[in-house]
Amino acid sequence: MEGNKTASATALYYDTRSRPGVLDPTTTPEEAGYALHTSRQQGVIPGMFHETIPTQPADYIFFRAHVLIEGKNYWTSEYRIAVGKL
């Protein structure tokens, strides 16, 4: 992507189970299969967005960032955070 664009929606999608694989621009958040997400935000990309992920009763939380720009979905790779069981 060249230059500044407007993100019509951006959020972190997360779950206690991994959703491995590459998600392409046609993969919607519903199709990605994550059980939870942070609040959806809008704004100019590149930009900074801040969110908090509530801890879950699991050893790990798996997450990836999503942004919708001009009708296309963009996804990061999946990452994991060790949280330990509560």
The average pLDDT score comes to: 89
Rounded Rg:
13 Å
Which sequence of SSEs, written as H and E, runs from N to C?
EHEEEEE
Number of E strands: 6
Our measurement of the CA-to-CA distance between the termini, rounded to an integer number of angstroms, reads 41 Å
- Give the count of structural domains: 1
Q: Pick out the low-confidence regions.
A: none
Q: What is the beta-strand fraction?
A: 35-45%
Q: Estimate the global geometry from the Cα principal axes.
A: globular
Characterize the biggest β-sheet: 6 strands, antiparallel
**How many H/I helices?**
1
What class, by secondary structure content? mainly beta
Helix content: under 10%
What does this structure look like?
The longest helix has 4 residues, at 29-32. The protein has 86 residues and is mainly beta. It has one helix spanning 29-32, and strands at 5-15, 36-37, 41-45, 60-69, 72-75, 79-82. The chain is globular. The mean pLDDT is 89. Strands 1, 2, 3, 4, 5 and 6 form a 6-stranded antiparallel beta sheet that branches. Strand 4 and strand 5 (72-75) form a beta hairpin. It contains 1 helix and 6 strands. The protein has one domain.
Keywords:
86 residues; mainly beta; 6-stranded antiparallel β-sheet; 1 helix
Topology summary:
Blueprint: E1 5-15, H1 29-32, E2 36-37, E3 41-45, E4 60-69, E5 72-75, E6 79-82
